[in-house]
Amino acid sequence: MNSAVTVLTMRTTITIDADTEALLRQEVERTGLSFKVVLNQAIKRALGRRPSGVQLQPLFSAPFPPELTRQSFNRLAAEWEDEDTILELGS
Fold first, then answer.
1. How far apart are CA 20 and CA 81, in angstroms?
2. Which residues, other chains included, contact 25 with Cβ-Cβ below 8 Å and sequence gap of 6+?
3. I need a surface site. Which of 1, 12, 62, 67 has the fewest CB within 10 A?
4. Owning domain of residue 28
5. Number of structural domains the chain divides into
6. Is the pLDDT of residue 1 over 70?
């Protein structure tokens, strides 16, 4: 019986951020492996870390306060910061 294994490869062009390239090149230097091998290993490790069927537990048992669901938290934080600034200037 003749068993043949077909290995498919894809050649593509990607744009890598400078900091990501630096990390990959550091790994190339550390391991002595080719850039291609290091990149493929990094992608496989990163994508392989996605556990399937993970159940997340809520941090709080109480429901989110309804009066806050319509709030913009950035606006709320800015208001609090403004209040702190006013208090500091008034001192």
1. 35
2. 35
3. 1
4. 15-48
5. 1
6. no
Sign of CA pseudo-dihedral 52, 57, 59, 61: positive
In a domain, residue 67? The reply is no
How confident is the model over 30-38, as a mean pLDDT? 93
Half-sphere exposure for 71 (CA within 13 Å, toward CB): 13
- Let me know if residue 62 belongs to a domain: no
Distance, CA of 48 to CA of 3 (rounded, Å) = 28
Residue 41 CB partners (closer than 8 Å, separation 6+): 33
Specify the pLDDT at position 90: 81
Q: Could you tell me the two tokens for 24?
A: 């990959």
Residue 49 has pLDDT above 90, yes or no: no
